[in-house]
Each structure stands twice: as structure tokens, then as C-alpha cells.
Amino acid sequence: MNQPVAHGHDNFRYDPLLYNADLAPVPAARRDWNWFNMATVWMGMVHNVVAYEAAAGLMAVGFSALQCLYIIGTAYLALCVAMWFNARSGTRYGIPFCVIIRSSFGPRGAMIPIGLRAICAIFWFSVQAYAASQALNAILSILWPGWAHLDHVVAGQSIQMWLAMAMMWALHGVIGAHGVHRIRNFELYAGPLVLVVAGVASAWAIYVCHGVGPLFDQPSQLHGTTLWLKFGSAVTSIIGIWASYAVNIPDLSRFVRSQRDQVIGQAIGLPLTAILFTPMSIFITSATVVQFGYPIWNPVDILVRIDNTALTLVGGATIIIAALSVNVAGNIMPAAYDLLSIFPRQFDFNRGSKMVLFLGIGAVPWLWFDHPENIYMVLNVIASTLAPITGIMLADYYFIRRQVLQLNWLYVFSGPYHGRNGWRMSALASMLVTLFFLYGAQIFHMSALINSMSWFVGVALSGLIYVILNYRTRNA
């Protein structure tokens, strides 16, 4: 192993495999995000195509508009609580998720949750960027008549879409390659703009339906036990959109100047904005039932169906801005941190963000836009996979560490967080047992109730096992 290098005022020697400038604690003087910055970043992330489609798709699978609102409210309340608590360590110590997770999993064991989180971030980047590519394709089809002739299929995609994807990937690269502060500045404008356009679209929905009343006239297709099991599963699916950020919210909160700012910013940016935005998608989808006779949950399909040039240009541009907004802060940034944590000598933030763009092609996002059931299936898998990591992080920071971390020891292969050869088996065992239980319940149909509440069960079970193991053993 390479010899550790000296760093810091106390001359503590950090290992180069665990430390670089991007992973170092952010000094208090550089933590310049206030509550408004945090709120606008969240506003930009909440207003995204997957969140829209997931909420709108609830009607396509049988829920009424009012039931959809209950589902959204329940999911975002649970998310808000988990993120408030998990963000505190980032704000207090100025360190990202990929460093904090070493406290519970050990410096080598941390590579497993970091890798899982990176895979989720790259997948979501790819899906969001593909949705933006669809919008760009619709815009170019209107502006350039010759674009429609580029319809030859290559590798499962038309040339139109391959070109649109290339342009969108390049645009993501330009915005994401300039670090966290460029991302913050972009979100100052993107988040509020998307909310304004979504409000205009909601006004269209109310106009089409001649008032708010008809938006809620579509009856539920689900009843009895099926309704409640589907309700729980839908809540878990909505949580799945943000389950990854329940894990790595410290990547953002490390730049916030105080706990008060991160709490207020998240309260405004996440639940409040989500409660405003997601009903808009439900209203719009309900209006498509009135206008066209069936629910249309993909916003690009709505633009194409309405066939209005001005609306397609404005709506398509908004979808693109929304995708850029969530991707640069919610997917590219955390995935870049994860990659440079796994390969600290090969990557810095800029190289990591470029690698995210490259790996995103491998997620083949066009396979996930056929039916709303596909999105819910993926969301449930993500929620189930990341729930144990959330539970372990919360249990470690609040019950085992009592909110006190020794920063220097998080950057070396020794000390209180090292475990056995860099692996803390209590965390690994808690995660594996919980995942075995959750996926076993799904594969063998052990309990419909467990399957419908997989995220909640995963957080609680993994946290409980982790606390028990660490109270019973000295060297976890």
C-alpha cells in the first residue's frame, strides 16, 4: 500500500486511497449555501419528468386523483423526515456521503453502498436525460421539417433520437463539469421557472375541465384489500424516486452554513414544492382523460397529441430544463463523488462527471418508457435496495456515534472505523440480512404487506439489526 501523505494543521497523515481535495471536509468559510439555495436546488430536482410520470401514472394504474394526492403526501412526508436527519452530519462536518458511510461500513466495506448508490445515480441520470431527449426531438421535429426524415432505426433507436441524445448528453456535460457552485447558480433559475410553467399547464387543465371539480370525478379502479396494498406499494414507488437522496443528502448539506438553513431549505424545497408540483401532474393527467378519453402520463406525448407549435416549444424547453435541473444536482454530482471515492487517484469531480455521462448510455433508458408499470417496478427495486443503507446510516450516527464523528479517522485504514481489515461486518450483515428478507418476500410472495411497505421495513429492520450487533460486540 502507498504510504499515507501528510495533510492538515494537526499533521495527521491521510491515506491517498481515501482522501483527495474533493472529499475533504468543506471549511466553514466555504459553506455558503443558505436556506434559499437549498430550497431552489430541491425545487429544481422535484420538478422532473420521472416525478411527473410517477405521479401521473398512478391514475393510469387505477387510483383516483384524490387517492393520488394522499399517496404523494404520505411519501414525501416520510422522505422529508429521513432526509432532515441524514443531512445533519453533512452540515455539521462538511463531508459527503461517501466519507460518512465509512463510519458504519468501514473504509473498504463502504465501497459496496457507494457502488450501489453510484449505479442508481447513473441510471436516473440516463432516464432523465432520455426524457429530455424526447422533448428535444419533438422541438426539432417542429423547427426543422427535414428532421422527420431521420427515422431510420439503428440499435433499437431512430437516428433522430440518437442525435437528440447526443446533444442532451453534451449539454449535461457543459453544465455539470464546472463544479458544485455552477450547479447552485443554475438551480437558482431552473427550479422556479419549471414551477411557473407547470402552473400554466395546470391552468390549462382546469380550463379544459371547466373547473376543478371534473378533475376529481374520475373514480378509483381499486377497492378493498387491493386498494390498500396498491396504496402502500405506490407510496414506496414514490419514495423510490428519492430513496437515493435519502442516502446521500450530505452531498448537498455539506455546503449549507447551518442546520437551520438545511432544515428550512429542505422543508420549502422538498415537501412543500412537491405537494405543489405533483398535484399539477395529476390535474394535467386527469384533464387528458377529459380531453382525449384516456390518461396520458408522458408529458412529451401530451405535447405531441395537442399538436400546437408554441406549446410544444415552451413545454419541450421546460422538460429539458427540468431534466438538466435534477440531473446536475441529483445525479451527476453524487455519482461523480461516488466514483472519485472509489478511484480517488484516477478521478476528480470533473473527470467523474464525464464518466457518469459515458456510463449513462449503458442504462438503455429507452427500455423503461413503454408502460408506467415499468417505472414502478424499477422504483420499488431501488427503494428496497437503498432502504437498508439509510437505516444503517441513521442508526450509526444517532444511536452508535451519538452524532459525534472523528473526522481524521475517516481518511485512514486504521482507528475506530476500520473494523476488520477495513470491513465493519455489523453493517454488511445488517444490509445483507435485510435485503435477503425484502427480496425473499418479493420472490416467494411471502407477504403482500411487506412488499408494499418495503422501504419502511428495510429502514427499520436494518437499523434495528445494526444497533443490536454493535451493542453486543466490541469489534464490529
UniProtKB/TrEMBL annotation:
It is found in: Membrane. It is a multi-pass membrane protein. The keyword Transmembrane applies. It holds the Pfam family Transp_cyt_pur. It comes from the Bacteria. InterPro entries: Pur-cyt_permease, Uracil/uridine/allantoin_perm. Keywords: Membrane, Transmembrane, Transmembrane helix. The chain crosses the membrane at residues 68-87, 122-147, 159-177, 189-207, 227-247, 268-294, 314-340, 352-369, 375-400, 421-441, 453-471. Belongs to the purine-cytosine permease (2.A.39) family. This is NCS1 family nucleobase:cation symporter-1.
